[in-house]
Write a structure and sequence with these properties.
Blueprint lengths: L2 E7 L2 H11 L6 H7 L3 E6 L7 E5 L11 E2 L2 E6 L5 E10 L2 E9 L14 E5 L2
Antiparallel strand pairs: 1-2, 2-3, 3-7, 4-6, 5-6, 5-8, 6-7
Length: about 120
């Protein structure tokens, strides 16, 4: 159950990860890129979780093609090059709605990874 919070701007790390994913070209990407400046974090998925819910403020363009998981695979590797997890960027009704950090292992990460640890590819 998400933990509601006072809305806050995206952190530098959150913004960098979202921008990295949205740098890929797919239908609706241009509108989603514009939404980043209007996005606010409104909930955390759990205490110390890196996954958060977003809301996009009024005035941002709606992405006509965005619903569910954005069609970009964002794979995370650790310092040794081993697969560590993935970042899922979600949209609801054409607006950015969540950043999910799905990790592979026992200990959940408390922050998003550095963008240098993430490789992206548009899903076919």
């Amino acid at each position: 159950m998400p933990i509601a919070m006072d809305p806050r701007p995206l952190t530098q790390g959150e913004r960098a990860v979202v921008n990295l994913i949205l740098a890929n070209e797919f239908p609706g990407a241009a509108e989603l890129r514009t939404q980043v400046g209007f996005a606010r974090v409104v909930a955390q998925w759990a205490a110390d979780s890196a996954s958060v819910d977003l809301e996009v403020l009024e005035g941002a363009p709606r992405s006509p093609a965005a619903a569910g998981v954005i069609p970009v695979d964002a794979t995370v590797v650790d310092e040794s090059g081993s697969l560590f997890g993935e970042i899922l960027l979600w949209a609801t009704d054409g607006y950015l709605s969540a950043i999910e950090y799905a990790w592979y292992g026992d200990e959940p990460p408390s922050a998003l990874p550095d963008t240098g640890m993430i490789s992206t590819e548009v899903r076919a």
